[in-house]
C-alpha cells in the first residue's frame, strides 16, 4: 500500500467511530454536509487523527478541508514533512 | 438575487419557535431602575440581581461615583480621540499606574473594552508563522483575536494538560508560540489548572497569556487572579483583564513585564484606531482598582456566598456545572433551551435575575442558568435566592 492508501485506511477507521448514521464514505464525503458533524465532534475526531499520526492540524488548515479526500491529502503532506 | 441575511434563518427560526411557546424573550430584558449592585426594577418588579459580573459590588461605591463626577466636571464627557493622538488624559495614565501597582508589574495598557484587549493583544503579538495554542472553550474575544491575526491556531480539549502538552511538542521547535488560557472559564465557572499548564507551556518555550477577567479582585492573595493563587503569576507573560466586572465600569487591559511591551501602543490596531475611554470611566476605574487592593473582607464574604449558593442549589436537586464552588459563578445546567427559558422566566417572576446562556456561548451545546454572586449580596439575600429557586424549580418541574 502507498503512504496515502495507508493513511486513508487509518483515517476511515477513525471516521467510523464518529459515523453514527452509517453514511457511505468516499473521498468526496463532506464532514459537515454529509456526516453532519458539529464542532465538538470535529474537535474529538481531529484530536484522534492528530494523536494517530503525531501531527498538528491547525484551525487554519481545517478551514480548507471539507471532505475526506482533502483530509487524507493534508495528513499525507504533514506526515511526509515530519 | 440572494439575500445576505438568509444565512441567519436557522437562528431566526430557533428564536421564533422559542417565543411561540409563550415565554418572555430572555434576550431583551430591560433594567428600568438599578437600586444597588444587587437589586433593580425589571418589569416593574423589585428583582435580586444574580446575573451580573459586579463581583465586588463597586458600581455604587461612594468614592468611585465621586471620582467619576469630578472627572466629568474637570475633563468633560469624552476624549473624542485615539490614545496615541489626543485621547490620553491624566486619568488614562493614572488608571495604568493603578494597574501597575495592583499587579506589581512594569507595564499596563488600557483598551476601550475587554473584548478589544484580547482582540488587539493576541492578533498583534502572534503573527504569520507563529502558533497560538488555546483551550477550545476560550471566550469569543480570544477566538476573534486568533481569527484576526495570521498565526496558526491550534486548540486543545478544555483544561486537558496532556492534550496541550502533546500539541506543543509537535510544533516546530524554533517557531514563536503563544499559549492562551483563562483563569476562570465563565460559562461553567470552573478554573484552569494553571500551575501545571504554565509549567508545560514554559517547558516548550512558549509565551503565556492568561485572561483573568472573572477572577480579578477576589482570587489570589492580592486579587490578581488564578495565576496568583496557583503561584505561577511570575511565569505568565501577559495578563488580560477588564474593568467591566469586579472594577464595575467598562474597559480592558493587558499587564506585562515584557521589556518591549510599550511598542504595542504603536502597532496594536484595536488600541490605535478607536477612541479612548471617557475621563469619567478611567477615573471610576482607577478609584475602584485602588479600593480593590484593600478588599479582603468583601472577598471573604463573596466566597461565603458562593459556597452557600452552591451547597444550597445542590441540596435542592439542581445539576451544577462544577462539583465544588471554584469561582463567583455557579452554573445551573438545564435539560434544554425551552425548559431553560421557562425556568428563567419563572425566576424572573419570583424577582430573581440570572443569565440564560446557550450555544454557541456554552460548551457541549448546554443550556445554562448562570448565577454570578456579588460581595454585596447579604447572607439573607442568598437564602432568599435559594427559596426563589426552589419555588421556580418546582413550578417548572425541573426539581
User: Which range best describes the helical content of chain A: under 10%, 10-25%, 25-40%, 40-55%, 55-70% or over 70%?
Assistant: 55-70%
How would a crystallographer describe the biggest sheet of chain A? none
Tell me the name of the CATH homologous superfamily of chain A: ACP-like
What is the structural class of chain B? Answer: alpha/beta
What would the CATH topology of chain A be?
Answer: Non-ribosomal Peptide Synthetase Peptidyl Carrier Protein, Chain A
What would the average pLDDT of chain A be, to the nearest integer?
92
Q: Whole-number radius of gyration of chain B?
A: 21 Å
Number of strands of chain A: 0
The CATH C-level name of the largest domain in chain B is Alpha Beta
User: What is the helix content of chain B?
Assistant: 25-40%
The major beta sheet of chain B can be summarized as: 7 strands, mixed
Number of spatially distinct domains of chain A: 1
In spatial order, strands of the major sheet of chain B run 4-12-11-10-7-5-6
What is the overall number of helices of chain B? 14
Low-confidence stretches of chain A: none
Given the C-alpha coordinates, what overall shape of chain B results? globular
Q: What order do the helices and strands of chain A follow?
A: HHHH
Would you kindly provide a brief summary of this structure?
The complex is a heterodimer of chains A (82) and B (399). Chain A is mainly α.
Description:
The complex is a heterodimer of chains A (82) and B (399). In chain A, 59% of the residues lie in helices and 0% in strands. With 82 residues, chain A is an all-alpha fold. Chain A has a single domain (3-80), classed as Orthogonal Bundle (Non-ribosomal Peptide Synthetase Peptidyl Carrier Protein, Chain A). Chain A is globular, with a radius of gyration of 12 Å. Chain A starts with a helix and ends with a helix. Chain B has a seven-stranded mixed β-sheet with strand order 4-12-11-10-7-5-6, sandwiched between helices. The relative contact order of chain B is 0.16. Chains A and B meet through α2 and α3 of A and β6 and α6 of B.
